Task: structure prediction
Amino acid sequence: MTATERNILVWDLPVRLGHWLMAGGFALAWLTGDSEEWRLVHVAAGGTVVGVALFRLLWGLVGTRYARFADFVRGPHAAIAYLKSLLGPRPAHCVGHNPAGAWAIVLLLALGLLTGAAGWLTYQEIGGELFEELHEGLASTMLAVVVVHLVGVAVGSLVHRENLPRTMITGRKIGATRDAIIGARPLAAMVLLGWVGALAWLLSR
Ligand code: HEM
Result:
């Protein structure tokens, strides 16, 4: 940390809470996917992933600085340039999401929604085996993207000597004061919790 740097707030509470709800929901849905006995838990866990993804779409438009899609969604050139820079002596560093990680994030949100939708149609016994197979295929694709995401987080942490998993808990990174977000948005986090809880409950009734 240089003289001008501080431990600054980067990730607001809805981003952090949403992240761990989505990660936990996905893990639980994966573990309970094959069991008839755990069907309601599986549906509630899937509903949690869908609820977080829907909230995140809105938060990507009205949330704090680094939560906004406009801050981190970039084209393939930016992602490739970022990845190339990791191999050089001066790896590019981003306060928010990097442009390569952003692709995994967008894919995870989209796959969370699509997997949930196909799962819901299967649960409603609509479309026969079609949606069941689609649901399984999408869930496996999502698992593959999660693995890429985790490798990306590990590489980013090593290259930048920054504990990225911890930043998703504390919301804080070392950086210039001018780069900090102003508030953690606890009220929005409570809305997220209420919305996700209500959706998971409604879907699994
Ligand atoms: C132990 C497991 C996990 C760890 C340590 C982890 C860590 C992280 C970190 C550090 C970031 C921020 C990356 C950055 O600096 O740009 C992030 C973002 C993200 N991760 Fe994970 N992750 C985990 C599991 C998952 C899983 C299972 C999913 C989805 C099913 C997921 C979905 C996301 C999403 C959507 C974001 C973007 C957050 C936002 O901006 O709202 N993560 N994760």
